[in-house]
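PROTEIN FOLDING TASK:
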Amino acid sequence: MGTGRRAVPGPLWLGVGLAALLGATVLGVSAGAASLTPAEIVRELLSHLPFLGVESTLNERQRAVLVQLRMPRVVLGALVGGLLAGAGAAYQGVFRNPLADPYLLGAASGAGLGATLVIVYGGAAPAGLPLVPVAAFAGALLGVMAAYLLGRAAGRGGTAPLLLAGVAVSSFLTAVQTFVQQSRIDELQRVYTWMLGGLGYGGWEDLRLVAPYAAVSLAVLLGSGFLLDLLALGDEKATSLGVRPATVRLVVISAASLATASAVAVSGLIGFVGIVVPHLVRRLVGPDHRRILPVSLLFGGAFLVVADIAARTLVAPAELPLGVVTAFVGAPFFVLVLHATRSRAG
C-alpha cells in the first residue's frame, strides 16, 4: 500500500535522518545560558582523541557545563526519541494502525504507577540506585505483561483482544495511581512533574541504566522489518511463506514494549513522538519497514532533541515540561492523522 507517489530510496533518507540527528545534537549542546559555539564543542571533543594534537578552548566551567549537563541530556533525548519512534513504528506495523503508539498496552499507566509509588512511599534510595526510573521501568513492563496475558486469555483472534486488554489494564492502573496520589496530596507536584516528562534530571547514570535494555530492544526491532512486511500481506500469506504470525507479533510487541519501558523510565511520559515520527517517515520512505524502522529511530531522536531545546529556551530561565512541547506539536498532528484515516475508511 503506497503513499500515492514514488518513495525516495531508503539510503538517502538514512543519510538525511543522520544529518538531522547530528544537527540537532550540535544545536542541543550549544543552546543555553552558557555560550558554547559549535566550533568550541567540536574542538573539545577532538581534544580527547589521541594523536590529533587538537587543544580545547573551553575553560573549566564551560567544560563542566558541556560534559556534565548538556551532553548527557542531549544523548538521553536522542535515545528516548529513537526508542519511542521505533516502538511506535513497530506497533503501527503489528496492529496495522497509524494511530497505534508506544503507550498502547499499559506501559504508560504502569510506569506512572511505579513512579508514583516510589515518590509517595519510597523514602530514601540506596546509594547509587535511582529508584524512580527503576520503578517506572518495572511498572511499564508489568503493565504490558498484564495486558498481554489478559488479551491472550480473552481470545486468539488477532490483535483486537490485546488492544482491549491494554485499555482495561491502563484504566485499572491509572485508577490505582489516582488513589495513591489522593492519599498523599503533598506529593502531587512531584508526581505530575514526572508524568509531564522531561530530561532535566537525566545524566550519564540514567544512560547506563537503560543502555542494555535499549540495545536489546532496538536490535530486535531493526531486525524485524522484513517480518513486519510479511505480516502486512495477511496471516495466511505470511504462514505460506514460512512465518508464524503469532510468534512474530509476540516478539515485536515485547521488544517495542521493552523500548517504551526503557524510555519512560528515564524521561517520564512523553507523548506523540511514537505517532508523529513514524507516520511522517512512512510517507517519506514508503511502506517498507526495513526502511521505516531505522529512519524513524534517527528522526525520532532529532525530533525530541529539538523539542527539548524549545522546552528549556522558550520561557528561560524557567523550563517547560517536555511532554507539553511534544503535545503542542503532536495533538494537532494526531487530529490530522485521524481525519485522514477516517477519510480513507469512508
About this structure: The first helix runs from residue 10 to 30.
